[in-house]
């Protein structure tokens, strides 16, 4: 089960760990919207602990922080561990006892949450000089998935420390990973404008045709709908029906907005982070305008949701992690209903019918590329250039992998 911790105590200069005892959930730290966490460099990722008011963060300088969140005056940094080069992604184990991290130097490692000690390191996990961009813990299974900058995906058996699945179908970086429990499928999105769907074991891996807009984030809602964030809004697919996605346009006035990350809140609501620094709540039933949640001073890199506490965490290039109360977000989003449009109703009904028919098909995948997306190219070109410039800066900072402990 999850570890039970109390307030941190200092055991050596600059290093903190939890003493066994009181569960932090009983201290009231998470009752109000927590104060911001501020760091000394860009924050690439943030993840909520499954039971405690604690987050893990990945920083561009390669450090991993485990931080308490709460009202002003609450202790913050609990543990730190170096992940090597820039740390791209962090994710907790199901019971919260371990925090997995991945870096631009290609290291995959695990930290003991209670002690802060690095307990496992896998160097060059995706091959020599291959940067790992994203991690996903498969819920309820002892399995971790990772995606790299070269378009490769690996699935790891955490108990054995071995790769049980490997796919190299994409021609550009893996931007995000999502799990579809209703189909037992892993979904990957890529900067080459395509999706891939694969089983965790066995040879099955199907690649879509390439689209004209990079897919930057992915979530699964309503069991069989796939929501992808792009430079020009959200695209919503029914499983196996990739021919005619529904586009949820999120343009900000006349200026197109690049939506680089997306996080599921409920089956109807997702949150988006963008290059205009805003965080929005979006209802994916297409009849509601986006709701403004908050703002950073720079690009929003990643989002994480704690459904139990009703909190959203946002990691930004402005060196902060901010927390937002989303306990009433669904009500707010549904309150932003726009005037019904009969044509939109017919289109949505047709999409749902097609999705239901596709879900009833056999497991033999049938993929179709997008018919015409040329109108979106002009709007997305400028944002694509800005996004890729930022990624290039990160890649140049990668350098040679740092040597770490072997399996402890």
Model regions low in confidence, pLDDT < 50 over at least 5 residues? 1-30, 339-345, 347-352, 358-408
Estimate the strand proportion. 35-45%
Q: Gap between N and C termini, in Å?
A: 22 Å
If strands are numbered along the chain, what order do they take across the biggest sheet? 3-30-29-28
Large-scale geometry: globular
Number of helices: 3
Let me know the average pLDDT: 75
Instruction: Count the beta strands.
Output: 30
The whole-angstrom Rg is 21 Å
Structural class: mainly beta
Question: How much helix is in the residues?
Answer: 10-25%
What about the largest sheet? Answer: 4 strands, antiparallel
Notes on the protein architecture:
- By secondary structure, the protein is mainly beta.
- The protein contains three helices and 30 strands.
- The strands form eight sheets. It has a four-stranded antiparallel β-sheet, with no helix packed on it. Strands 4-5-6-7 form a four-stranded antiparallel β-sheet, with no helix packed on it. The chain has a four-stranded antiparallel β-sheet with strand order 8-9-10-11, with no helix packed on it.
- Strand 17 (185-190) and strand 18 (195-198) form a beta hairpin.
- The relative contact order is 0.12.
């Amino acid at each position: 089960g999850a570890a039970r911790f109390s307030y941190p105590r200092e055991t050596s200069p600059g290093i903190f760990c939890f003493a066994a005892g009181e569960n932090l959930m009983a201290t009231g730290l998470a009752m109000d919207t927590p104060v911001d966490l501020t760091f000394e460099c860009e924050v690439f990722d943030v993840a909520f602990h499954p039971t405690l008011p604690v987050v893990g963060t990945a920083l561009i300088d390669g450090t991993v922080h485990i931080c308490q969140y709460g009202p002003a005056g609450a202790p913050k940094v609990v543990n730190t561990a170096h992940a090597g080069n820039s740390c791209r992604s962090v994710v907790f184990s199901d019971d919260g006892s371990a925090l997995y991290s991945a870096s631009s130097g290609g290291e995959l490692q695990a930290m003991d949450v209670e002690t802060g000690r690095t307990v496992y390191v896998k160097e060059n996990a995706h091959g020599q000089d291959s940067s790992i961009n994203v991690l996903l813990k498969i819920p309820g299974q002892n399995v971790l998935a990772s995606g790299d900058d070269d378009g490769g995906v690996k699935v790891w058996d955490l108990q054995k420390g071995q790769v049980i699945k490997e796919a190299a179908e994409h021609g550009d970086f893996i931007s995000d990973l999502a799990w579809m429990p209703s189909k037992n499928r892993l979904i990957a999105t890529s900067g080459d404008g395509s999706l891939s769907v694969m089983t965790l074991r066995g040879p099955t891996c199907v690649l879509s045709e390439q689209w004209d807009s990079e897919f930057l984030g992915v979530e699964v809602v309503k069991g069989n709908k796939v929501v992808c964030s792009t430079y020009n809004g959200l695209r919503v697919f029914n499983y196996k029906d990739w021919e005619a996605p529904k586009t949820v346009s999120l343009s900000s006035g006349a200026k197109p907005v690049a939506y680089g990350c997306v996080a599921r809140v409920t089956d109807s609501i997702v949150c988006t982070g963008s290059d205009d620094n805003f965080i929005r709540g979006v209802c994916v039933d297409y009849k509601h305008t986006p709701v403004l949640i908050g703002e950073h001073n720079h690009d929003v890199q990643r989002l994480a949701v704690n459904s139990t506490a009703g909190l959203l965490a946002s990691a930004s290039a402005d060196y902060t992690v901010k927390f937002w109360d989303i306990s009433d977000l669904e009500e707010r989003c549904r309150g932003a209903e726009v005037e019904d449009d009969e044509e939109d109703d017919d289109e949505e009904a047709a999409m749902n019918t097609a999705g239901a028919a596709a879900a009833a098909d056999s497991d033999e995948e049938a993929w179709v590329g997008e018919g015409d997306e040329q109108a979106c190219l002009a709007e997305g070109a400028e944002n694509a250039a800005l996004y890729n410039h930022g990624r290039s800066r990160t890649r140049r900072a990668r350098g040679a992998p740092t040597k770490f402990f072997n399996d402890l």
